[in-house]
Model the fold of this input.
Amino acid sequence: MSDKFPQRPAVILIDPQLGENIGMVARAMLNCGLTDLRLVRPRDGWPSEPAEAAAAGATEVIAAARVYDTTTDAVAELRRIYATTGRPRGMVKTILTPRAAAEEMRGLAAEGTGCGVLFGPERSGLVNDDIALADSVIEVPLNPDFRSLNLAQAVLLVGYEWFQLGAETASRRIDMGEGFPATKAEMVNFYERLEAALDETGFLFPPEKRPRMVRNLRNLFDRAELTDAEVKTLHGIISALRFGKRGEE
Done:
């Protein structure tokens, strides 16, 4: 399949329940030229005969699907993540329509930057910790009194906007100079080190407020769209604050 932008977005299904739904997602993906399917903890296991049957010929997507134990593992090498949810739940996130998100993703693809879209389980949607991993939220403008979509419909809406844009590039981009956007693995490593340092100082207190404080901090840094070099600098700042001047114990 030819594509001017071979770096297509990954479709990441978190806790998908039925194999049939996964198969219909694969079918929707291939309709739109998407082939990178990632599954986090599929309830009924993998591989799945019902998924293959429901894919209706989208066997290349099913055959190449990868399974992960955690969302963090599934997005580790990606540099920009979008979460599909109608409920940002109090987090400060940029909210995009599927078309606006597709424009961004096309621009990222043109630069060779990997990105992915998170879709939650059929009944409950994404949990807060998964949304916190995302840089932006995709919200579909539908009837406010009835926004219910099944999993394949949601994937198709996002994939359709991606496919329709063809060779168009995004109207918004960030000049990284000689750097590259930090991968999610680099960002998570930084977050964990920062949070450990804040635990040592007693900043993340009281304990019952720690999860929300951590998510707010992660969202803050996600909005900054840090480069790999900037993340290294922040690691140096943490070391300086914890251990003092270089060379001192």
